[in-house]
Write a structure and sequence with these properties.
mainly alpha; about 290 residues
Length: about 290
């Protein structure tokens, strides 16, 4: 049981770390949904006031009916003004479309952040379950070994007494045919540790991804704010204020959670593995990193 006891001793000593990591996950992974924040922003953009000019046929200039050059010039000036206004509206629509495209891209990124946050919680909970499973297996093995050694002593004593009694002509029955030796594979100790370590790897991967996604997202938000500034007006200012107040704090909290958990998860015992993924054994014991 050498390889198991070695691995279990390390994991057992890290019990407080496991509990600390799980607790920290639920402390820091409590930010609001990033996707929900973007959905609110999308509602604001979709509710924008759009001035629609419905020109009737009466407003079409009748140049053939005009006899005064002054009146014709006046009509031309009015139409030029309307054309410029229409051009401004087209420009504004293009800018809003650019905003919506950027918003869609950022919302997809936010969905990945939300998903990573959920996965971190799931893997942290699984890590706790696997750790408890190893504790139970170790306790079960210790009790089974104690029972087996005690039973061996009882059988040995009974058979010794039977031998003494047989010298007097008695024929006492000996305890025979009972197999109390350990059976390989009855309880997979290696599989239990392997499951724990695999979960640790998944948790580590998700924590790193959460941190990287959040950092990149904060950088990408600047483009949305730039497009909003280019749009200008009340809507542009409203978008920038919403992003600063409702979205950036959520993403920063997710980024902070990723950075904090990277440090915490790094303290967990990690197994050395072959390229095939199998555990590495050294001197009959599971080899651990930095051990």
């Amino acid at each position: 049981m050498g390889f198991w006891s070695s691995a279990w001793d390390v994991v057992k000593s890290a019990g407080k770390t496991v509990a600390k990591v799980v607790k920290k996950v639920y402390e820091v992974c409590t930010s609001d949904s990033a996707v929900d924040a973007y959905d609110k922003l999308e509602t604001i953009i979709n509710k924008r006031e759009v001035i629609v000019h419905n020109e009737s046929s009466n407003n079409v200039p009748d140049f053939y009916g005009e006899v005064s050059t002054t009146q014709i010039d006046k009509k031309l000036a009015e139409q030029n003004k309307k054309l410029m206004l229409h051009s401004t509206e087209i420009n504004e629509t293009k800018k809003i479309m650019a905003l919506q495209i950027e918003l869609t891209r950022l919302r997809s990124s936010a969905d990945l952040i939300d998903r990573a946050m959920k996965n971190v919680k799931i893997h942290a909970s699984s890590l706790s379950v696997h750790y408890q499973n190893m504790r139970n297996i170790n306790g079960l093995i210790d009790e089974a070994n104690d029972f087996r050694h005690g039973l061996k002593a009882v059988i040995s004593t009974m058979n010794y007494n039977a031998n003494l009694m047989s010298k007097d002509g008695s024929k006492p029955r000996k305890v025979e045919g009972i197999d109390i030796e350990k059976k390989d594979g009855a309880i997979s100790q290696v599989a239990a540790f392997d499951a724990f370590d695999r979960t640790r790897e998944l948790l580590c991967h998700e924590v790193i991804e959460l941190s990287e996604l959040s950092t990149k997202h904060l950088s990408d938000i600047s483009r949305l704010k730039a497009n909003s500034a280019d749009l200008g007006g009340k809507l542009g200012a409203q978008i920038i204020n919403f992003v600063d107040a409702e979205i950036i704090p959520v993403i920063k909290k997710a980024e902070s959670a990723g950075l904090i958990l990277k440090s915490e998860v790094a303290q967990l015992p990690a197994a050395v593995r072959e390229k095939s993924g199998s555990l590495v054994f050294e001197n009959g014991k599971i080899k651990l990193e930095n051990a």
